[in-house]
Design a protein that fits this description.
alpha+beta, 465 residues, OB fold (Dihydrolipoamide Acetyltransferase, E2P)
Length: 465
């Protein structure tokens, strides 16, 4: 495969794995030490080079430490499941809403509800109850429109609160966790399904019971139950030993485009963390209409030891859709493909569009391969600030071997910005007495790097005193 020439860094050995604390600290370094503002240069994208036909066989691939930390940093806190919310409920009921009544100039909204079925809890004195919402200046849709049906998870109004001060009726309730404690449904059949799901949620205690409950939700026609089932599965230990019933449910929902993409991504990632290779064939049949879904599916299959084949990857890498190409490049980081590093290094080249270069740099950060430092050093020379910062993060993800790359860039970088930025990063991660800093200082650096070193050493000395 013919590639663009890369800057080769001397004295770089095999890459060591880095810990979570190191990656977090080095991410802060990038945030604190920005390169000078630069201008990006647009480029025209040629197609990515094709993959060789033979894929290597080997052990089940694992995500690199850098990749795992990056994924954890981007992940949002896990949502509370309906099972967890139900614990706080004193009443769970199937209701039908009437027209809402605003109070206190619209800061409070009162929803009259007619109870049609008690799922569990003590029956109120009347079938007519009030659901109270503290609206404030919110512009979100109402909790329930007139005529809407839902199962609601209710708790009493606090006796000492703004709501109780203005809503005196004794049959007034709040929804547990606001709108998260409201499960809408359409039609009697779906209402029975939601009520049954809440009863299972109340009784599910053991991991086996929770798993059975989660798959029952996942097989539902109600979007909220499906979403909740995904969250329940994600919170369980890695899935293994999928039953035929579970496989059937997964096969349907992995291609169900009525389920929000974010929910399907979470389901795919949950399967990728599992230990059942049968999930890989289910993921191969998943409908991935967005780049994010494609990347999640490709990465999950690789983690399960069944990465996409050469023909499939070549289709994605040659796609005219930059999002699809980016997804395939990011997935190469966990594929353990013999030619992954070479393909990613080529994709970092300046002739590629910015989106492709950034995806390749992120993927190279996950590769435990010292050869990738050459491509990252070349990207560090970019006059695009975003490319320069991304390559800096990727170099720092290489742990101790980042020092060799930063020293070489500070000494041999083409531009002043490259040399000084590399020196600044080195000083931020290492003390003035560290051998890497001393090696740079004693290697006749350019005057601009000398200035950075002198200022950095003076600041360090001042802090010590």
């Amino acid at each position: 495969m013919r590639q663009k020439p890369l800057i080769v860094l001397g004295g770089i050995a095999s890459v060591l794995a880095v810990g979570r604390g190191a990656i977090a600290a080095e991410s802060a370094v990038i945030a604190a030490v920005d390169p000078p503002a630069l201008t990006a240069k647009p480029a025209q994208p040629p197609p990515s080079p094709p993959l060789p036909e033979a894929l290597p066989a080997g052990a089940v691939p694992e995500t690199s430490t850098a990749g795992a930390v990056a994924e954890a940093a981007q992940a949002s806190p896990p949502p509370r499941t309906l099972r967890q919310l139900a614990i706080k409920s004193i009443l769970v009921a199937s209701v039908r809403a009437s027209a809402a009544e605003p109070r206190e100039q619209g800061r409070i909204i009162v929803y009259p509800l007619r109870i049609e079925r008690i799922v569990w809890g003590s029956k109120p004195a009347s079938d007519q109850i009030l659901l109270v919402e503290l609206r404030g200046a919110s512009t979100r849709p109402p909790l329930l429109e007139a005529g809407a049906s839902a199962v609601v998870l209710l708790q009493p109004l606090s006796q000492v609160s703004y709501l109780r001060e203005h809503v005196r009726e004794p049959n007034a309730f709040e929804a547990v966790a606001g709108r998260d404690g409201i499960i809408r449904f359409a039609g009697r059949e779906q209402g029975v399904e939601v009520a049954g799901s809440m009863l299972r949620a109340r009784d599910a205690r053991s991991p086996l019971q929770i798993r059975s409950h989660a798959f029952s939700e996942l097989g539902s026609d109600n979007p909220r139950l499906v979403e909740d089932g995904v969250h329940e599965l994600a919170a369980l230990s890695p899935l293994q030993g999928l039953t035929e019933r579970e496989k059937s449910i997964l096969a349907v929902q992995l291609s169900n485009t009525s389920i929000p993409g974010q929910t399907r991504v979470r389901l795919i990632e949950t399967l990728g963390r599992g230990q059942d290779r049968a999930a890989a064939s289910l993921l191969a049949g998943a409908f991935t209409e967005t780049a994010r879904l494609l990347e999640a599916a490709l990465r999950a299959r690789a983690k399960l030891g069944a990465p996409a084949g050469s023909n499939e990857l070549n289709v994605h890498l040659g796609s005219p859709d930059l999002g699809v190409r980016s997804a395939a490049l990011r997935a190469l980081a966990v594929s353990r493909h013999a030619y992954a590093a070479a393909i990613l290094a080529n994709a970092v080249s300046p002739h590629e569009p910015r989106e492709i270069r950034l995806a390749a740099i992120d993927a190279l950060a996950e590769l435990e391969d010292s050869a990738s430092l050459g491509a990252l050093a070349a990207a560090f020379e970019s006059d695009d600030q975003g490319i320069k910062q991304a390559s800096a993060r990727a170099i720092l993800a290489k742990g101790d071997h980042a020092d060799d790359a930063l020293v070489d860039l500070a000494l041999r970088g083409i531009s002043r910005e490259t040399r000084t930025y590399a020196a600044m990063l080195l000083l931020t991660r290492r003390s003035r007495a560290h051998p890497s800093v001393q090696r740079l200082a004693s290697s006749s650096p350019s005057p601009d790097v000398v200035e950075v070193l002198e200022k950095g050493l003076q600041d360090s000395h001042a802090h010590e005193h």
